[in-house]
Fold each of these.
Amino acid sequence: MSKKLALALVLAGLVSACQQQQPAPTPAPVVVAPEPVFQGKYGAN
């Protein structure tokens, strides 16, 4: 019985190892915005 179990585990490992690999998702690029510049009390210099 243990030989059948070992064979089943080996076959399951081979099947999972031979599956087509899916590409890893790439993160979206981070958008960097400039800091707002202080323009005085009323918004004009």
Amino acid sequence: MQVKTLTFNPFQENTYLLYDNSGECAIVDPGMLDAGEEQQLTAALEALQLKPVKLIQTHLHLDHVFGTRYVAETYGLEVAAHADDFFMVEQHKEYALNFGIQVSANPPMPKVVLNEGDVLRFGETELQILHVPGHSPGSVVFYHPETRQLIGGDVLFQGSVGRTDLPGGNHEQLITGIQQKLMVLPDEVKVYPGHGPHTTIGAERAGNPYL
């Protein structure tokens, strides 16, 4: 599995394109806020000659779903997320205003439920789903054992962890989940977070002050 990173919106959110030799692609956390950013996503897909077949969310905080409706409607995809975050969908427009951001509509309600232990398949790729709540109630990560790559959302960052002061956040729950589900993975696993640079499990095991 290969990973293409695109960074969007004022929150500098990382949107990921996951793909393999089949040409099929999963789009993770589309964060495009305007037409220019939407075009950047489309251009990246075209340049890599990818066919989007999955739209998956690590969680449903506003900066990770700004572009979800565009992707769903443009490529005819259903949104997949953990049910514990569904409550955020109807609050999206109002919550965005708290940050001075106006959006025309809420993102579409997810129709595919992602659960702990599920396997997500596209092309030649199988992703394991781990539920790691605490940043949000429904935060999940996507792990590809063969290439030892982890799409981590806002659970674990380089030298930090996800904030837990938003609705549904729980710091103790987050740290416990990271320790029990992520820190048991091999050191060389590469972590692609929702913001900032990538890191590895080994680097965070050795030097993350929150762990």
